[in-house]
Amino acid sequence: MDVYKITGGKRLSGTIKVNGAKNSAVALIPASILANSPVQIEGLPGISDVWTLKNILEEIGGEVSFEDGTMSIDPTNMIDMPLPNGNVKKLRASYYMMGAMLGRFKHAAIGLPGGCFLGPRPIDQHIKGFEALGAKVTNEHGAIYLRADELRGAKIYLDVVSVGATINIMLAAVLAKGQTTIENAAKEPEIIDVATLLTNMGAKIKGAGTNIIRIDGVEELHGTNHTIIPDRIEAGTFMILAAAAGDGITIDNVIPFHMEALTAKLREMGVDVQESDESIHIPKPENLQAIDVKTLVYPGFATDLQQPFSVLMTQAEGSSMITDTIYSARFKHIDELRRMNASGRVEGRAAIITGPTPLTSATVVASDLRAGAALVIAGLLADGETEIREIYHIERGYSEIVEKLRGLGAEIRRETIDPVTSTKSDLSSDAN
Ligand SMILES: CC(=O)N[C@H]1[C@@H](OP(=O)(O)OP(=O)(O)OC[C@H]2O[C@@H](n3ccc(=O)[nH]c3=O)[C@H](O)[C@@H]2O)O[C@H](CO)[C@@H](O)[C@@H]1O
Ligand SMILES: C=C(OP(=O)(O)O)C(=O)O
Fold first, then answer.
1. 2-19+230-428 and 22-227 agree in CATH topology
2. Which terminus of the chain has a smaller tally of CB atoms within 10 A, N or C?
3. What is the ipTM of this complex?
4. Does domain 22-227 have CATH number 3.65.10.10?
């Protein structure tokens, strides 16, 4: 079993670089299926979700290489192979195989996706979109089967603003006959990034980044070169780390405009966020004040930063509340933070945290990706050695995290421990 061991309590300083965006990467890679010649994507993060998608494209006959952040994908010999199990269960974004394979082959059979458990994560809006485009969709033994004689453009109103449904419908619609309109579309920067790739492949898309997207179907799409946008969630995680445990940290390769909601909330707490063109500097913060935060769809405060931000709240003076309007059960990290002496409780869709509290080391478990990121920040703050387990969640979304944090002076290492000798009693003491 692999774990992170962190000796906390040191203030960190220096420059930390952000990688390409996970939530773009996991859509850009499947989008390449729609091309009739090779696609090259630069700046991809070396996270496990990207490697899993590489394996999935190879399973369906793609020729794929991935080196130094550049993935070259030759989709010419891909086939409409069913993918009911296996790799597709390892990540949430394997749902993009549905839209991309339906678009290219008019047929797909994809297992229901995995990814973080954050409460119910239905895909009904994706399916509503595919059906509107003319696909027959059935759920057979946990896999979604999609079949269409032809795909025809349609007007689709999303009942829920969904990143995944917006991108998946775009993927299925770019090769459909006629015009598709997605109303109440999500506006995340990753949607613009995917639309940019598809446009450079020859697609006709207007309005990506607004709540109405119009797509005029084309006969075919060709290969292209694309550079991915920076990861605003990784950048946000580092900004929160800088506010919690920094002694002057510069976060490099950021689009400050993407960070506006987080920046506003940090400033409200008393953090001095200094923006440049492609970087953000946060000097050593003093006297953090309690605030309330509510997660919302973009450009609101990202749910993916809710868990890391709750660690920062443990260091602020007073009682803070963080409400997650997107995911009802994204609070498993609170129990783990309580093991580390944090004072917090969950009430419905909100966590209430009182500070400032000195955190203490413990053996804790990452229940999901951003819970893991939160525990890394907590471990860096805590006195003594913290052990974080189930780190495969963290490595779905953060590449070279150990090396990057060491670059700031952190004492963190990845270690393989024996699960038998590391007794369960490490984890069994009740959280206070
Ligand atoms: C791979 C990827 O990009 N993951 C991100 C994506 O997830 P994902 O695309 O799964 O999230 P969505 O934007 O679709 O979900 C938003 C909300 O809509 C609900 N919903 C969604 C689809 C649907 O068909 N029906 C439905 O009810 C969800 O349960 C959730 O409450 O956006 C989330 C919200 O910003 C982020 O937390 C994830 O990091
Ligand atoms: C929830 C997340 O990812 P996924 O949708 O891939 O599970 C995340 O990135 O925080």
1. yes
2. C
3. 0.99
4. yes
